[in-house]
Amino acid sequence: MTGEDPKLAAYAHPERLVTTQWLAEQITAGRIGGPDGIVLLESDEDVLLYDTGHIPGALKIDWHLDLNDPVTRDYVDGARFAEVMGSRGIARDTTVVIYGDKSNWWAAYALWVFSLFGHEDVRLVDGGRAKWVAEGRELTREVPTPQPVEYPVAERDDAPIRAFKDDVLAHLGKPLVDVRSPGEYTGELLHMPDYPQEGAMRGGHIPGAKSVPWARAANDDGTFKSRADLEELYLREQGLSPDDDIVAYCRIGERSSHTWFVLTHLLGFESVRNYDGSWTEWGNAVRVPIEK
Amino acid sequence: MHPPAESPAESPAELPAELGEIAADFRSATNDLKLQLLLEFSDELPSLPERYAGRLDQLERVDECQTPLFLVVEVDEADSPADRRVHLFFDAPAESPTTRGFAGILHAGLDGLPAADVLAVPDDAPMRFGLADAVSPLRLRGMAAMLARIKRQVRAKLPAA
Q1: Residues of A with CB below 8 A from B136's CB?
Q2: Inter-CA distances, B88 with A123, B91, B150, Å
Q3: Keyword set for this entry (chain A) (predicted)?
Q4: pLDDT tens-digit readout, A129-184
Q5: Are residues B135 and A52, on separate chains, in Cβ contact within 8 Å?
Q6: Is the CA virtual torsion A105, A107, A110, A114 positive or negative?
Q7: Which of residues 55-114 of A touch B (CB under 8 A)?
């Protein structure tokens, strides 16, 4: 479906990305929503941004309210995930297209959580919400009413793409990618510049981690860099190889979902795990090793 | 019939009337309706007056919000404490409607009140809107930070006693 765009066609898994132009064509053709249609989701940092206006036909999914367990620091279970999906008219074989604010961090995060549950066909809109808005395309406040469908209760399979603290301890010595800002990596800051400095007792990074801020994989308009540029960055500059066993992390796992997406789907790396505990866990854990 | 007398230490401090009504509206609403209400407050947040437009250096930055927000407080100069009224001005981008919504609530609930009333607003006021389930407790921190900074600015702008 996306093969006509030469930039996308060059990626390892081009079917994971769509352009704003392609999306606009699907909307015009009436392919969004409906029992056999594509389901379009908006996933933002700001819980109200969707409500101020969204791409026609899009439904909201909130990383915190829909995908995180309300009590335990973990994702929802299979039963709750089935509700989240089914209530939005998503069946197990539905094509889901996700876009969001902040260069698609939260869209990539949602895509990664969907992948924990093995939802096969889930894609991002290259450039996300900002590109759609910058192109002057239509936004609406009209909220669609999807026809609920049955979504099977799928067990979450964390091991292939999610790392826990103990996994990271066992991984020390193998490639780690710290995607936070340089100030967070060196330990001067405990959160991104311009954000509240909260959430960790210690600053610094996990020993041996390479500093590759997520933004280096994105263009100024929020789109992903070309495959050639990404290979230059991760393969040649950082010396990573597609068959490396890699763990990526940030502060709570949203920015590293962006990098996980780049390495896994755009460059075709086979073993990349996202450590969602990230710095808010590592920087608060007793006696784990830290480098400054 | 009279309610039993309680010492102030035992009963939680009340919200000013207007803010209390807004809090009651939120508390009685479903989660979807709470978001709708918050969006209305975001939409209705007045833009900066001419004298502050483009002069964000004159405003205090609230870093605790997910997206930084700027605010400034003015207090009327008057001899009578009741006439020392507080005026609130906020600036937050349209892409941050939750932050704007919090600012809108505080503006609607506190703008124009005497300084003493604003200073008496309990610090836990943001927790009294039943918003934790609708927007997550994480996101509520921003409103508490705004309130703390408003009160600090009011204190600093009152004539020394």
Answers
A1: 47, 64-65
A2: 44, 10, 8
A3: Repeat, Transferase
A4: 999 999 999 999 999 999 999 999 999 999 999 999 999 999 999 999 999 989 88
A5: no
A6: negative
A7: 64-65, 101
